[in-house]
Design brief:
The chain contains 13 helices and 17 strands. The chain is α/β, with parallel strands linked by helices. The two termini are 35 Å apart.
Length: 436
């Protein structure tokens, strides 16, 4: 989501007459886009801002700005932390940044722009020329109020963009060569639940879909030129029978979903206010696997949540094997100011959090290796992304299940095309193959 916000602001600045600097050192304007989901993320942003503002001694006209969740959370306090910061812009106010830069150029300093929880975001459709793949925001904010999460405070309440607006944006992207779109929302499958997104004169769903998110998937899948559609992040409550039918029957919808689980313990899940049990989560997984045997699930997990016992951690380990995750992102619990869990004693030591983190990462490597070895000999349809980062002689792309596939190219291979690749070797997070 922050990648998408950064791209939108960059496009707005370019439209206002600014141009990209070749390097950070050459830039006259630098904006740090911040995240508040963990303390470490804020510390890194503050450290970066301090280093950037220190360059004002030699370059007094250099403009340094802050955008995103940390600006929304800290407000005026950020200028006490970083006195030479020129401006700070909270969430949902990206469209204001070009005018704020002009105000700084005219001599103003320490300018703060924040949004209200219900504010409709501005300029979400601004894009740069990104080639064949693009992010498209469909839902902003979050209403779930998980006990550890600060996102509802900094991103505001849920707002679903009108479907016509989204389809128009994706159609324009397709005309400019985009072949893959990823639909973004903090709880993306809640799309359309909190505000109306369809109108009486819209055509009926050809597939008989009633739920707003399934209807949107159908409409996006039908946009000429779009070859693949992904979405993130999911929640088990959104894995309805209709959604499973939509994903399994609509062309171009990828058989992959990022479905954060956070814990495998019912007691911890209840304390986290996640809204489901272990059994409910696994039922959602089984629905997807039953309808689409090639389906790939990825997830997020928090280790060391307050009061998490060793036995409850082991419940998380076992769930991850039952759910057959293709990949997992493991986070050590970090208390965030103002959240319910921050009032609890952070009683799992840092050393124990690190140990649990390492255990789950090692488990995931073994599980990823075993799952990927099952794909050796299969033919995967790969959307070509370009040269491999580790070996320029090879190219890489992603399968429908979002697995990285590395292969030897031919002169005819082009970025943004889908090619068949036979898998000949597997690693925990990467497949290696040859063009068919």
């Amino acid at each position: 989501m922050n990648v998408r916000d950064s791209e939108a602001v960059s496009a707005l600045l370019e439209a206002a007459g600014y141009r990209h600097a070749a390097t950070e050192d050459e830039a006259d304007l630098v904006i740090v886009n911040s995240c508040s989901v963990r303390e470490k993320a804020e510390d890194k942003a503050l450290g970066k801002l301090g280093l950037l503002c220190a360059t004002k001694r030699e370059r007094p006209n250099r403009i340094i700005g802050l955008m995103g969740c940390m600006a929304q959370r800290l407000g005026e306090a950020v200028f006490r932390r970083v006195p030479k910061l020129d401006f700070a812009v909270g969430t949902r106010r990206n469209g204001a940044i070009p005018s704020l830069v002009k105000r700084v150029e005219n001599g103003e300093r320490n300018i703060l722009e924040q949004s209200s929880p219900d504010e409709i975001p501005d300029a979400p459709e601004a894009h740069e020329d990104l080639g064949f793949s693009a992010f498209v925001t469909i839902l902003l904010g979050c209403n779930r109020r998980c006990s550890y999460c600060i996102v509802p405070d900094v991103r505001g309440r849920e707002y679903s963009r009108p479907a016509r607006e989204i389809i128009a944006e994706i159609s324009a992207l397709a005309k400019h060569g985009v072949r893959e779109v990823t639909l973004l929302g903090q709880s993306v499958m809640n799309y359309g639940r909190m505000n109306p997104v369809w109108f009486d004169d819209d055509p009926p769903s050809a597939g008989g879909f009633k739920e707003p998110f399934s209807r949107l998937l159908e409409a996006v899948s039908a946009v000429p030129g779009i070859l693949r559609v992904r979405f993130t992040s999911g929640h088990p409550s959104g894995v309805t029978d209709e959604l499973v039918r939509a994903m399994s029957s609509l062309p171009h919808i990828c058989h992959h979903l990022h479905l954060p689980v956070q814990s495998g313990s019912d007691r911890i899940l209840k304390s986290m206010r996640r809204g489901y049990t272990r059994a409910m989560y696994l039922e959602a997984c089984n629905k997807l696997y039953t309808a689409m045997p090639d389906f790939v699930l990825t997830t997020d997990v928090i280790v060391g949540y307050p009061t998490e016992t060793e036995a409850e951690f082991e419940e998380t380990r076992s769930l991850m094997y039952e759910a057959k995750f293709g990949n997992a992102f493991i986070f050590k619990y970090s208390p965030r100011p103002g959240t319910p869990s921050a009032a609890m004693e952070d009683d799992v030591t840092d050393a124990e959090k690190c140990r649990r983190d390492e255990v789950l990462l090692e488990d995931q490597d073994r599980r990823g290796q075993a799952l990927n070895e099952q794909l050796v000999g299969s033919i995967q349809q790969v959307l070509v992304e370009g040269r491999s980062l580790r070996n320029a002689a090879r190219w890489s792309g992603r399968s429908d299940g979002n697995k990285i596939v590395v292969f030897e190219p031919t002169p005819a291979v082009r970025e943004g095309t889908i090619v068949p690749v036979r898998i000949v070797r597997a690693a925990p997070q990467t497949l290696y193959g040859e063009l068919v």
